[in-house]
Write the structure tokens for this entry.
Amino acid sequence: MPSPVTIKICGLSTRETMAVALEAGAGMVGLVFFPKSPRHVSYDQASELAAMARGRAEIVALTVDADDTLLGEIVAKVAPDWLQLHGSESPERVREIAEKFGCRVIKAIGVRAAADIAKATAYEPVCDMILFDSKPPKDADVPGGSGLSFDWHLMEDLDLAKPFMLSGGLDAGNVAEALSITRARAVDVSSGVERERGVKDPALIRAFVAAVNGGIPC
């Protein structure tokens, strides 16, 4: 029976962990196209992993302030269902990307304070989903996957017309609480299912999905 909460496992980079994510019941799988990230994949890797997932889960290509050339190559070579924009893209740029590449678009918003949550209203008209992630430390070289969470109570009065996804510091031990507070119907995990930075752990993937579903990992 499908989970009432959509589960996205992001930053997958091996056949083994992709297979585990799909078998565990992830509804979305994320491939990272950002060389500074330890989860970055090549086009060949991404094409192979996307072929495994196609028809079983929705494929998300994560980029950071990507130009049209990069986005065009990703769309042509990987054919993702979604483009996840995890940089400082303006609402105008998000609209441009959605219109030009014909993919559904997730816009990530970094959160540290209530004012950050409020930024979502500017993006609602131009994207298909908002992702709320924790703001990275000021010295971080990547905008996500830090393993840090934000104050989920900031989202208690959230009223959005578009679907939203919760990310940032989630793991099997805290995701149930996060869902209870935020009422999110979609969650995104990366570092919370890794045994070391950039290396996914099959057991942690299974445990996370089980925790979201309120079950016990096999």
About this structure: Strands lie at 6-9, 28-32, 58-63, 82-85, 104-111, 129-134, 164-166, 186-189, 194-196, 199-200. The helical segments are 15-24, 43-53, 68-78, 91-101, 114-118, 120-123, 175-182, 202-212. The chain has a mean pLDDT of 93. DSSP finds eight helices and ten strands in the chain.
